[in-house]
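does this look right to u?? NDP version
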Amino acid sequence: MTMTEQARDAKPAAIDKERLRLKYREERNKRLRPDGNDQYLQIKGQLAHYLEDPYTPVVERAPKTDHVTFAFIGGGFAGLATAARLTEAGVKDVRIVEKGGDFGGTWYWNRYPGAQCDTASMVYMPLLEETGHMPSEKYAHAPEILAHCQRIGRQFGLYDNALFHTEVTSLDWEAAQSRWIIRTTRGDAFTAQYVGIGTGPLHVPKLPGIPGIERFKGHSFHTSRWDYDYTGGDPNGAPMEKLADKRVGIIGTGATSVQCIPHLARACKELYVFQRTPSSVDVRGNGPIDPDWFADIATPGWQQRWLENFTANQAGGSAEEDLVQDGWTDLSKRIRAKIMLLPREQRSVENMRAAFEDSDFEKMEEIRNRVDTIVRDAGTAKNLKAWYGQLCKRPCFHDAYLQAFNTPGTHLVDTDGKGVEEITENGIVVAGKEYKLDCIIYASGFEVGTEYKRRAGFDATGQDGIKLSEYWAEGMRTKHGIHVHGFPNLFFVQPTQGANLISNVPHNLTEAARTIALMVGHAQANGFKEIEVSREAENRWVELLLTAVGRMIGGPDCTPGYYNNEGREPGPAAKLNVGYPAGALAYFKYIDEWRRSGQFEGVQFR
Ligand code: NDP
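got this back:
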């Protein structure tokens, strides 16, 4: 009997919860570091070349000093969806300001081989119905998503006014004219009646602060700036033929690595995967979308129905059917099934947490057992097992990642939670051993826990000279995650303090886009110059948010990572990084009713 057959036929052993809790704690403690987020390097100065755009040359242009009705900072899904809804609402001059060389945001930068969405395309890709695009696969690959962003840009006429390779440096409210003045790295100083901000949570790449990082003499790049000139191949998956004689090291085994390692394993002469913490990798089950099936289901309103159904299954509802059917909806259905086993009167928060833990232990055991069924070398398989709750880190789903470790020439270098020790002129050192390399790829992620102003690159100055960074010093304060008192005509497009639906971020964005377009359309139609949330309404919203029972994602007992501020006490401000207490599904229902009422409760038009 092969190992695969043995594992398949083995009866699931009873789970020793105490042993697991202990193991999780040990593994977490091994990884806790006093420097938390400071272990990472901000990419600047000598390292600034890691940020350069390898995809589009920068084109000289004259600075803009004109006026537009709506300026949007960020040309990813948030900006595209909002701009699309605004044009539908009759606002013709929307200007998107974007640091990349085209629309796409995440999908502009992340062109590493194998990049694909890990939430189903049918709900992940915005405006499918409006553009008439049928995703080619259940989980579309990056080139298709980037092309979709460009399609939205073209269809809604957003290219003419857009400013690419442009970063905002300041945003100041000019009260006398009821408008914002926006300054940028390209010398622009233009005004806009309204401004939207959708810069995304993960747009600033970071490097690990490993001693000697600047000494390496070989080639190196960050995964979000993939150097196809060096590797050969292309984002569509063409073989990276230039790596055939190369020894390549990749640092990091998060969601990005899980997707690109199968491609590197195929291409490199030798591939060394430097791992600090393994990802949990469950079944993907990708496949093409059948046009006949799609034609049947794509009746008017189909995408909204799918969005609502996904959220109902994934975040708090109890839908009768599950349209998407994947690891995300399965995860929630398992937890719900456990809770439903409890008599109604026993469904306390404590018991629900216990049910969640039980379900998670079962799932993670299944995921760990899966490693043994795939990875041939027992030592490698052991090291690829994740010892933490599934939602402590971004859950990964892939059908070729674990298999890649069976490829001759692919080596897992596990660092037992310690990370890479040193980088030398010639390569990487772990446990005193130097691995000589031609190229180092940093799959080390993006800044999350650093100061907002540092990540955004600008602060906003609102009424009476108040800075947003000061106003939010003790935590984010908004209504609906969109408006901030003292900052009229400024709108945020992001999940926090709204639905906070992490499993499908674009759904948060497309809902915010609708809300903003409705308000701006109303102001334009009625001759109002300013839209602002009242202080009382903002306070009420924040008080409501504080009644939330806490989060299931990245709790303090989790292994360190960006979901839990690298395992450190996040500080009092973090208690406001929450969503609508009744959950994402309830938020979407609430905001739909808020819009339909036509009352704009809490928001003043002047
Ligand atoms: P992550 O932050 O998830 O991963 C960074 C990796 O670098 C971790 O494995 C980390 O280890 C490792 N690392 C950091 N420092 C060291 C060190 N000194 N030595 C060795 N290893 C080190 O970044 P990703 O780019 O993988 O993913 C970021 C996020 O982007 C995801 O969580 C997800 O939200 C999103 N994403 C989504 C995808 C999708 O939807 N298709 C695909 C890819 C990314 P440790 O875990 O120990 O900190």
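Residues 31, 116-118, 202, 208, 210, 251-257, 259, 274, 276-277, 394, 415, 419-420, 443-446, 561-562 surround NDP (CB under 6 Å). idk if thats expected tbh
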